[in-house]
Amino acid sequence: MNLIDKNTKVYYISTFLLFLASTMPHSILTVLFLKKGLLMSQIVLMQSFFNLSMIIFEIPSGVMSDLYSRKKVYILSLLTLIITFFLIIFSKSLFWLSVAYTIYGLANALETGTLDVILINSLKNNETGLQKFLKYQKQISTFSSILGSGIGFLLYFKIGVNIYFISITLILINILLTVLFFSDENKKANENINFQIFKRHIAECISELKEKRVMKYYFIFFGIIQIFIQSHFQLWQKLFLDKGIGEKNFFVMYVLFQIIVIIAYNTNILLINMKKLYLLLISIFLMAITVIILKNNLIFTGIYLILCTIFFIINYYFEFNFNKILSKEKISAITSMKSFFSRIFSFGTLFVSSLLLRKISVVNLFVINVTVVIFVVMYLIFRINKSVRIKA
């Protein structure tokens, strides 16, 4: 077994353990914090510290991964996650739980662009191998999330907040697995990083983005797609309720949403071209219009699932091509910059949507948001295609 195959298998197991540990409390998170004595408004405030922390630490953590050691930064993210879980177990006050979620954001920021980037760099010249890696990465994380949320839901009623001890155990196993079996052949000779080196690396990343003009269109895409992603994840329950679909069906819908991600990331991206992307976007637009007028719940659910699947396929297409054109030396920092940019769009989407919902219905807002994404992505595809032709 060669080094890439060995690292890939270790990474897949590590990803499975990480998402299993992280998602176990997800299905009962609000209930758990309410039992700790928090109000709903305090829970929302506490969770906002997670997003703020991610925005602050995304780019610095990416630079650390490029300049230091991606494997060591990944292990640091796991250790930080353990601290988060211990704080959640033993804290009851808003202050300390907010501290926990700030550290949680740091842990997630540190994890971005670490072990996965090592493997992406190894597969840059192998399109089939890169597509296979991204596909299995998403499918494993999605399957693990379904399993984790289901196990957490069942165990919570027996052991309560102690499910976090199971999560901590899984993270410790993950650390041991990574330390012993994942090989980082690109260790940095000089691990002493000062501010000037840090600053110079960011400047070099910005220069790379300027030189590869097509990159700005990818950045805009990963920002604009958040309008759909946030609309879907934040509005779907209210959308379904307004259509007369009761909450007793929500767990089934949650599982179906995870399954369609697996289906989307099973698509052969190498067979998709610009014309097919246009056809997919036009089909989404027609589906979005029908969402307004559909009365039959079964047909509405089917149309909604197909619409989401196509969006995830398009997102997969852009992820694949984005990772292909990044330089190996700066991939972690630029990936973190992309994530930072996306999170700003996420925040903006939720803020503007909260204002619009005072005037229009959830269904109309969803259709407006989807329509905006479709036409912007069509323009981006045109610009990317034009840039590639000019370069050729």
TrEMBL record:
Keywords: Membrane, Transmembrane, Transmembrane helix. It holds the Pfam family MFS_1. It comes from Leptotrichia alba. It comes from the Bacteria. GO terms for molecular function: transmembrane transporter activity. Residues 1-388 form the Major facilitator superfamily (MFS) profile domain. This is MFS transporter. The chain crosses the membrane at residues 12-33, 39-61, 73-90, 96-119, 140-157, 163-182, 217-236, 248-265, 277-294, 300-318, 339-357, 363-382. The keyword Signal does not apply.
